Amino acid sequence: MIRVVVADDQAVVRAGIAAMVGAEPDMTVVGQAGDSETAVDLVASLRPDVALMDIRMPGAGGLAATGRITADVPSTRVVVLTTFDLDEYVFAALRAGAAGFLLKDADPERVIDAVRLVARGDALLDPAVTGRLIGRFAGGPGPSEAERLAALTPRETEVLHQVARGLTNVEVAAALGISPATVKDHVAAVLGKLAVRDRVQATIFAYESGLIRPGIR
């Protein structure tokens, strides 16, 4: 079972999400929170697989809660729930360690898919929105980014490029003509060499280093 904590300050929204997630045969909602402090405490005590986190909540807010959760309970994957006009907060949440984000008006199926996706260790990335965010808020590449990028082999750089487009391992394999297992090995090598925790962080690095430019594939 995928264990989920739902955090949203709107009781109706929180109950709706919890009911939707709890109705799935492979998921269970182990806790609900209406503010950021409660959310952090629940995750610390319950250690769920996934936390669905509203970015605007009473207390320190969902952004601060995301940072604390990813630092203190790295086994819990955080998916940020937001509205499209809060780009800067979404970017900050990704930098804080969120496994991805969803718009609050996402279809129920999308929310369920997101929970399953991040629970198995993948990242929830919308290439268009992520590229827009990173293109707007990331600075130019610095010496550190250039050195880390240079440490990658040509094939690892190709894999990073495809991952930053939001492709899964299977899709990357098809694009490069290699096996999914080989892609998995390359992704692990990329994460290690770049010293990033997951595919979301690798995607951010790809934009910040200049490997990927918004609107250019």
UniProtKB/TrEMBL annotation:
Every HTH luxR-type domain range: 145-210
Task: Set out the biological process GO terms recorded for this chain's protein.
Answer: phosphorelay signal transduction system; regulation of DNA-templated transcription
Q: Which domain of life does the UniProt lineage start with?
A: Bacteria
Instruction: Could you list this entry's UniProt keywords, alphabetically sorted.
Output: DNA-binding, Phosphoprotein, Transcription, Transcription regulation
Q: Where is the Response regulatory domain?
A: 3-119
> Which is one Pfam family of this protein?
Response_reg
Named from the GO MF annotations, one term is: DNA binding
Q: Name the InterPro entries for this protein.
A: CheY-like_superfamily (IPR011006), NreC/VraR/RcsB-like_REC (IPR058245), Sig_transdc_resp-reg_C-effctor (IPR016032), Sig_transdc_resp-reg_receiver (IPR001789), Tscrpt_reg_LuxR_C (IPR000792), WalR-like (IPR039420)
4-aspartylphosphate, modified sites: 54
**Under which name does UniProt file this protein?**
DNA-binding response regulator
Taxonomic lineage of this organism? Bacteria, Bacillati, Actinomycetota, Actinomycetes, Streptosporangiales
